[in-house]
Please model this.
Amino acid sequence: MSPSTIELIGASLFAIAVLHTFSTKYFERLAHTQPNHAGLWHLLGEVEAVFGFWAMVLVVFMFFMQGRENAVHYLDTRDYKEPLFVFAIMVIAASKPILTLAARTVRVLASLLPFDKQVAYFITALSVVPLLGSFITEPAAMTLAAFLLRDRFYSQGISNRLKYATLGALFVNVSIGGTLTPFAAPPVLMVATKWGFDMSFMLETFGWKAATAVFINATVVTLLFAKELKAMAKPRTDGPKEDMPFWVIASHLVFLTGVVVCSHHPAVFMGLFLFFLGYSSAYARYQDRLILKEGLMVAFFLAGLVTLGGMQSWWLQDVLKGMSPTVL
Model:
């Protein structure tokens, strides 16, 4: 069946969005050369805003070509649970009490290793924290690991080679570190019930292999840059300040757990998230700035993917059907 006009437009906008993603520096330069519209160019220069922007263009096309009801119906039939969940879990996971607990835990585990203090902290943060993605979900694990590595290493002006190697290993480890359980990683979650993947099956079939790969990746990067890591100045603290009462950490863990457990029910986990915002405001002295803007930008990116992605089935489905199971 031949694609409709709006499907062709959707595919074209998706292609433009992909090209735009690799052209954001151009818009940043425009922001400096055309200060009258610097705000717009800065917006278009944000990688996270690209797919959301072109998704908005798609909806505008639908509005004028198919009418208001069809445009609204299309948006109503998209599933935006994942963007909402990622927004909520990122903000909570990056809150000061959760980061304090994570920093303390990584420091204790690192102290058990017979390595240099910096080396031990680095390999622990790059291996153990990504594996937490199997329990607190991958976005939360990524947020925790990124903040811990930022505060301990990136803030010291490390080399670009170490920056990229760490980032690459972190992306891979978080991506595979969520496969110890059947409920955390989205690709597993989509098929777990239908294919009968329970906890024991995941651990025996995928989990131990993923965990092994995570530790190998972290070890290789650590060995490659051990000299640079050892030469770094030892920080006075290992993350957020230590004046954090246990009951504050416990309450934030309750919010984090509640959002994870209710991740398939937006009305529930967003309600918990709003309650979390109120709670954080009430005890502001135990908080740093919440990453609301950063979380919203990531959610905007994911929502844009969902919106544009819904118009790609006419060609993507045929491509996937033409692949062998192994290639797919």
